[in-house]
Amino acid sequence: MKEAIPGAAGGRRRQIDGLRMIAMLGVFYVHFWNKSPTIEFARVSLFFVVSGFLITLILLRSRHEDFSLKVARNFYIRRALRLMPPLILALGAAAAFDMGGIRESLWWHMFQLTNLHVFLTQDWSPWVTAHLWSLNQLEQFYLCWPLVILFLSRRQAIGVTVFMLVLPIALRSGSLGGDGWRGILVAFDPIAAGALLALTIQTGFMRSVLRIRWLAAAALAVILLPLLLGSDYGGSAVYRVSIIPALVVLVGQAWEGFGGLAGVALASRAAGLVSQISYGAYVYHLPLWWIMGYKVDPELFQPGPRTFLIMSAASLLLAAVSWLALERYIAAWKHRFPTRLCRGEPAEREEALDHARQQGAGAAAEREFGPPDNSRV
User: What's this model's pTM, rounded to 2 decimal places?
Assistant: First the structure.
């Protein structure tokens, strides 16, 4: 019998879902309530660390399979199936209403180049797409990442990851960078930190480090330090760098499994449900704000607790409808493009069915893959 994985459900560590929910609620807090929070960098960096960690784990599980080129191709197809439907819907609605004059720059956003557009124009307009820069940073990072993980040795991959971690820090601190407009093109150090955690989490050293009980408290203290030292420290380059290892610790320990109330809260069903629709909520929330503010209630453009509560609830509701009506069915297609090519084994087929049943698309999946194999326990 396999040993149970702490916090795991359907092959996932559920406490990571809790961290993803926190990152998304942090986005809502900044946009709908407080434009200049003291720990602004923390919520963006948490999103990046979690994303880099999870994607690298997916690739690592595939690196020993045959046909690596096919695995890489399937990885890109799966990412497109997951990311493009909400993005197309959001940009389509924005273009239909010409939100903020988006039609002039629509193709930049459609081709995942919002961050480059912002850098070239030195302007966040149109504001309904300003949030896409972070998604673009991730997708641009992932363009090369399957090639690094699938085709290099683990030691070589670690070397590349360390380089990708150090490079943006050096650029931002030197004459070539700065934390201004150029910073949004070289903000991938937290992504690389999450990838490095994935590459090393099974080593004895890293596992022993992550099991130090007081380490999470120390990491949380580092993240919250600007609340004591002030917003100037919270916006400093020193803070931006120091929170990366702190967030890596929290993500790693969540993967191992926190105990107590923190573990229960992070692994709750509510956190899992919010995490499942978090991508859609993130993509939709600014175009939805435009509609709610211009067509329903102009007072919603005044940031504060009322706007936060109404717009957060509306964003989550829209994302849930999008998931139930469209995204989960498209997500079921991902299993036609497996990233684990086990020839002669039923594992991939069964994994596809299990995943589809969890997403509520079990009937469609069984038509595609056949009935479940109840003999596999």
Answer: 0.84
